[in-house]
User: Fold this.
Amino acid sequence: MDDPTPPSRPPRRAARAVSAPVIAVQPAAVFLAALVLAALMLAGHARAGASPPSIAQIVQAEIRPGWRGADGQHIAALHLRLAEGWRTYWRIPGQAGIAPQLDWSRSQNVASVTAHWPRPAVFDQDGYNSVGYAGELVLPLTLTPRDPARPMALVGDLTVGLCRDVCIPADLSVSQPLRGNGAHDPVIAAALERRPEPARAAGLSRATCQIRPDERGVELTLRITMPQLHREEHVVMELPGTNYWVSDSHTRRESAELVATARISAPQRGPVSISRDQLAFTIITPDRLYEHRGCTGG
Assistant:
């Protein structure tokens, strides 16, 4: 088919509205507690006669079609425009945030979609650190076609968190046919400039981690030897490819070292077994974004 039309959309789940905070990915018992808390908060809104705003009043979602590169890959972007005062979340939202879920499986002639998350901001949400974007999010996407000779249709079924005084996990659908070479888009290009850089480019010379087991899992202390980047430095740790829960990091500066401490636990309070080369971490400042993988014993 030379001119794909995005498939019709199946019925979507109704958007849900709850008061902040909403807990993101957690062990099963904690996640269940978060659902109960959300239900109680929603009931409180109903008793107070307050109605949460509609999704259409908060966010407008579209695909920026972008351009086809010389290598045959296509650069597009998901663009979320938010109402004043509203925020959405980075890929790791923090304990009070809502993790985004992006499903591109209904796309046509698309072999893979790679998202390039631009630099987020760290903000306080009811005493927790949350990580995300205010006003808008332009999320660049690299698309690899199955057949480079045919056009593509990008179709996304998305769940994103929207937060101000209340937090709303919102279900959205977007679609866009992608034909020909397209045109360079300076908005997408600007977002690509805010992608993470290797932390070694900022002077990282060493990363060590101490792992201390206890009855709730492990406590991991990461020490990063590098020059101070900014008065505000925040470290986010993750364990890609595992189902372990990693808490928000407590980040502090100790002279030449940036030190971050986080808790790691397994579902159903199971044992935690990690290797240091599994650890990935991102350093966020108001004007830079760096990432690194692995640490040594220290």
In short: Residues 9-47 have pLDDT under 50 and may be disordered.
